[in-house]
Amino acid sequence: MQLLKDRILKDGIVKPGNILKVDSFLNHQMDITLINEIGKEFKRRFADCPITKILTIEASGIGIACIAAQYFDVPVIFAKKAQSLNLDGEMYCSKVESFTHKKVYDVILSKKFLGPEDHVLLIDDFLANGCALLGLIDIVKESGATLEGAGIVIEKGFQNGGQKIRDMGVRLESLAIVDSMTDDSLTFRD
């Protein structure tokens, strides 16, 4: 998606440790015009799938998933990274290691929102090592729902997450795949 690649080149900042900061337009401050185009692109790429739910993980994927969901006309559900007093009933649970936070989370989702009748599209902002997606895939499998695919805004193609997910047979659509990053340059896969 050229619009996204151009924005990454213009406003993205590469930090030591293979960190790509896109917080000025994607995952802290959100450029809704750009995210609206991202939502349209996910709908175009998954138009052949009978999506009934979009699943993401808190927090950065929620806004993107919500914008995309309006094009699919389906609800968004998100796995929470912490138990809270307002969560009740049975839960799906999976462990997820965050690349940027260097922390393992138990992610949870109420069983009342996902079941065998659902056709799920996973949406997230980044794919690096694949841990977040693997956790969401585990939840979908545990629920008995059908996983239709995963939509990622930015994939770090030089890390192994994308290959892991594709090797599992999951349909993975990444809108921008970064092939390499240095302090002063980024290259994208075509």
Automatic annotation (TrEMBL):
Catalytic activity: XMP + diphosphate = xanthine + 5-phospho-alpha-D-ribose 1-diphosphate
Residue ranges crossing the lipid bilayer per the database entry: none
Cellular compartments per GO CC: cytoplasm
Source organism superkingdom: Bacteria
Major place of residence: cytoplasm
Residues the entry annotates as binding xanthine: 20, 27, 156
Keywords: Cytoplasm, Glycosyltransferase, Purine salvage, Transferase
Pathway involvement of the protein, from the record: Purine metabolism; XMP biosynthesis via salvage pathway; XMP from xanthine: step 1/1
SUPFAM superfamilies: PRTase-like
Location in or out of the cell: Cytoplasm
Biological processes annotated in GO: purine ribonucleoside salvage; xanthine metabolic process; XMP salvage
Residues engaged in binding 5-phospho-alpha-D-ribose 1-diphosphate: 128-132
EC number from the UniProt entry: 2.4.2.22
GO molecular function: xanthine phosphoribosyltransferase activity
Subunit annotation: Homodimer.
Similarity comment: Belongs to the purine/pyrimidine phosphoribosyltransferase family. Xpt subfamily.
Protein's job: Converts the preformed base xanthine, a product of nucleic acid breakdown, to xanthosine 5'-monophosphate (XMP), so it can be reused for RNA or DNA synthesis.
Protein name (record): Xanthine phosphoribosyltransferase
Organism: Blautia obeum
